[in-house]
Specification:
The protein is an alpha/beta fold and 565 residues long. Helix content is 43%, strand content 16%.
Length: 565
């Protein structure tokens, strides 16, 4: 059986249809846009949840497309057999009837303002070039000079501030109809500007561009904007009272971004992957958009494609490689004791409760921990489990959880890696000295301090503590840390070998206690295991005559150390 190719990275609707890619039909989004008759629609969804493809679909449905000579193009064939074609004639009368401006701002992800601004000018110029045939109309003679300046990227700043409004006016004059304006990934320039420290410059430009196009534009039919985060009206959409924000909390349009259960079931059936449905659900489901339970579409398609090559392929975190995890790192770097405990609880499958508010700006995201939690919720790192309104403060509170194993993987692996980096950056001279000098009290105190600064989780305690000990003892000048756990060869957990065999070597065994009262017993048990299984013999056989034995017991953020020569 020949299967349709899966649309990995395909976000152009026309290419997806004409090249025969697999398509999960979201065309009723068009019907709902027409029914609601909202002037400016802002959809906020996490990265890689189908926003760009939907924008392309909207363009191909509504646009009165023309060739370079002005000849009309009929794109209705792209929608044959799709749900919108059965929705009713009142919707089909809008097909191919409007001039459309489609502008993506994602290319403005640049390190400085000049580069970002140049990329935005180029995108605007490309959209002007796409409509250049309208200049053949004698009614647009007066507009040609300004039009060409913008198209050739030679206009001044004011012209670019006003460029979308000006283009829509030109299009209305040519077509005799108002224009639809689509703006994809509107917040990418703002996010990059924040990290690149040119936020105010970019905010000023984006505000001018959008206000001109959407607020005071009589040539606008309606607009659809997409982004990852809802930005406060005060920062970008000042005074834009015709704006409707549809976030992941809204029930309207909740099924159009991401895949539903039924859609993933159908995909599994179409590709003979029925036995993998539970794996898809476990790894990539769990998002709640309005009332819809949603899968990450990017990861579902990626995993399905891998399974077509190898049916026994293990799932992996595809989204981790496409979504910026800098915000997760910031959460870790700024985490106090309470936040660390909350992260541990989340990784263990529990929930945390946080106040939720949508009106934030990028320069406010990192000002408070609550803002950071909000940012992560709206960008796909958490799902809503429950909610309630605090009547005294009129604040919405939500119980949040990690949505699936894919995101849990990001937290577990990224967090452990970053904490390891933090430990390695600290001055561990006192710890190394106390360890080599067998100063148990000082060594134990140093370990406990480091444990308080990191996080752990119950379902991986043994692996965590092994990695923790390996990390904190690495970097001792003149010593090599040998980890034996990976080989599963029955040896002690760690050997610490000096470069010269005239010095003392060390063997370490650790145990994890079920309760704090067991620490003493477990440390003794670790020492006895070293002796009973003759772990020292391997070091003796390697030429080390002097060997010190360490037994370490852990219970959550506490440890107890015993030493024996």
């Amino acid at each position: 059986m020949k299967y349709k190719p899966l649309p990995i990275g395909i976000d152009n609707f026309e290419k997806l249809v004409t090249k025969g890619y697999y398509f999960i039909d979201k065309t009723l989004l068009i019907r709902d846009l027409l029914d609601k008759k909202v002037c400016v629609n802002l959809f906020t969804r996490p990265r890689r949840f189908g926003k760009t493809l939907n924008m392309s679909m909207i363009q191909y449905f509504f646009e009165d497309a023309r060739k370079s000579d002005g000849t009309k193009i009929d794109n209705s064939y792209l929608f044959e057999g799709m749900k919108i074609m059965e929705a009713g004639e009142e919707y089909l009368t809008h097909m191919g009837q409007y001039p459309v401006i489609n502008l993506s701002l994602k290319s403005a992800k640049q390190p400085n303002f000049d580069m970002a601004y140049d990329m935005l000018k180029r995108q605007i110029a490309d959209e002007y070039s796409r409509h250049m045939f309208i200049l053949e109309d004698e009614r647009l003679v007066e507009q040609r000079e300004k039009y060409f300046e913008i198209m050739r990227e030679q206009a001044d700043r004011n012209a670019y501030n006003d460029s979308l409004k000006f283009l829509s006016q030109c299009l209305e004059r040519y077509y005799g109809k108002k224009a639809i304006i689509l703006i994809d990934e509107y917040d990418v320039p703002l996010e990059s500007a924040f990290f690149g420290k040119y936020y105010q410059q970019m905010t000023d430009f984006i505000r001018s561009l959008l206000e001109s196009a959407l607020k005071t534009n009589s040539s606008l039919e309606f607009s659809v904007i997409t982004g990852c985060l809802r930005i406060s009206k005060e920062s970008i959409f000042t005074g834009l009272n015709n704006l409707k924000i549809i976030s992941i909390l809204n029930e309207k349009y909740d099924e159009y971004f991401g895949f539903l259960d039924s859609e993933v079931e159908q995909l599994c059936e179409d590709y003979d992957l029925q036995d993998k449905f539970d794996t898809f659900k476990d790894w990539y489901n769990g998002y709640l958009f309005g009332d819809a339970n949603v899968y990450n579409p990017w990861s579902v398609i990626q995993y399905a494609d891998d399974l077509m090559e190898n049916h026994n392929k293990f799932p992996m975190s595809y989204w981790a490689n496409t979504s910026s995890n800098s915000v997760v790192r910031t959460l870790i770097e700024r985490a106090d004791m309470e936040t660390k405990q909350e992260l541990e609880a989340l990784i263990e499958g529990k929930t945390v409760e946080k106040p939720i508010h949508e009106d934030i700006t990028y320069d406010e995201v990192y000002k408070t921990m609550d803002n950071l939690w909000n940012f992560m919720f709206f960008t796909g790192y958490f799902r809503k489990v429950d909610e309630h309104m605090d009547e005294k403060s009129d604040t919405l509170y939500m119980k949040l959880a990690i949505p699936n194993r894919e995101v849990k993987y990001i937290f577990r692996n990224k967090i452990l890696g970053w904490f390891k980096e933090k430990i390695e950056e600290k001055d561990r001279t006192e710890l190394f000295t106390s360890f080599v000098n067998k100063d148990v009290e000082a060594f134990e105190e140093q370990l406990n301090e480091l444990l308080l600064e990191t996080i752990s989780f119950n379902d991986a305690y043994e692996n965590f503590y092994h990695g923790f000990l390996t990390g904190v003892l690495s970097g001792m000048k003149g010593y090599m840390v040998k980890s034996n756990r990976e080989g599963g060869n029955g040896r002690s957990d760690l050997f610490i070998k000096p470069a010269t065999r005239r010095k003392t070597a060390f063997v370490i065994e650790f145990k994890v206690a079920d309760k704090i009262s067991q620490l003493e017993t477990k440390a003794e048990e670790a020492l006895n295991q070293i002796k009973d299984r003759q772990y020292v013999k391997e070091l003796n056989d390697d030429g080390y005559e002097s060997v010190v034995k360490y037994g370490v017991a852990f219970f959550r953020k506490d440890c107890l150390v015993k030493v024996e020569e």
